[in-house]
Every structure is written in C-alpha cells, then in structure tokens.
Amino acid sequence: MRRGADPAREAKEVRAAAKLDAERERADAVKAAYTVQRVCDDYHLGYVRLARAKKGSAEVDRMLSTGCSVPCWVIWPVCRQLT
User: Has residue 55 got a pLDDT over 80?
Assistant: First the structure.
C-alpha cells in the first residue's frame, strides 16, 4: 500500500499554526495595552508627584487607587470599551 501526501491534513496544520500565531499576537497586544491603571500611574508619577505638595500628592494617589476621583457613570462607558 502506497502512502502519499495528504493535502487536507497539510492545509489543516497550516490553519492551526496560523490560528495559534494570531492568538499569541492577540495575547501579546493585551499584555502591552496602555491600560487605565497605567495612565493613572503615569499621571501621578509624572505630574502630580512633582507639582503638588506631599499631602496633596498622597490624596490624589488615594483617589486614583480607590477610584473615587471619577464618578462611575463617567468611567463605565470607558471600562466597557476596554473589555
């Protein structure tokens, strides 16, 4: 019995490899995304910490970390877009 190449199997393997590569790229993009948390951290470290007194900087840090600086009706649409 002679065995030859299986074009359907080869095509399936190529599709599976392409799908795996796409999933890896998507996962890397999610890891590298500029999240709201990173924006808040950059804002605090790059501006607030330098421009305000220690007490004011600590208060802004507290508000950003607890999320009470922005009403939930403002941030909800943004959070929905990020997910």
Answer: yes
